[in-house]
Design a protein that fits this description.
Blueprint: E1 4-7, H1 12-21, H2 29-46, H3 51-56, E2 60-68, E3 74-81, H4 86-94, E4 110-120
Antiparallel strand pairs: 1-4, 2-3, 2-4
């Protein structure tokens, strides 16, 4: 059976998209970039491969929009890009609520879109 891996990486185009979708704009592009990377790391640290999706050989990337308060609390999530798997999409939406505390956004309350990827090796 393939070994599951987990990642919540942000490529250049996804990072640009995430920064464009963030509102209000943070103090500087460098701060915004660092903050988005820290958000991706915090989410990835809690990510697991759903067993049923693993057994079915399901892979994909779900894009999740996070609504983040000025203190860094995730207020709600929204699926903006489905992975092609209902199981992975449900896991992507539930993932940020797993006691993930984000650093405070540099520009106050904001939204950010994060790609969450599941890939079997």
């Amino acid at each position: 059976m393939p070994t599951p891996t987990r990642s919540a990486t942000i490529g250049r185009s996804a990072l640009s998209l995430a920064l464009l979708l963030a509102a209000p704009l943070p103090a500087s592009a460098a701060q915004a970039s660092d903050w988005v990377k820290s958000v991706a790391r915090a989410i990835a640290a809690k990510q697991t491969y759903p067993r049923i999706a693993q057994m079915r050989g399901e892979e994909g990337t779900a894009k999740v929009k996070l609504f983040v308060s000025a203190s860094g609390a995730i207020e709600r999530t929204e699926l903006v890009g489905p992975s092609g798997s209902t199981t992975l999409d449900k896991a992507a939406l539930a993932l940020p609520s797993r006691e993930v505390q984000l650093p405070a956004p540099p520009g106050g309350a904001t939204t950010v879109t994060i790609p969450i990827t599941w890939k079997l090796l």
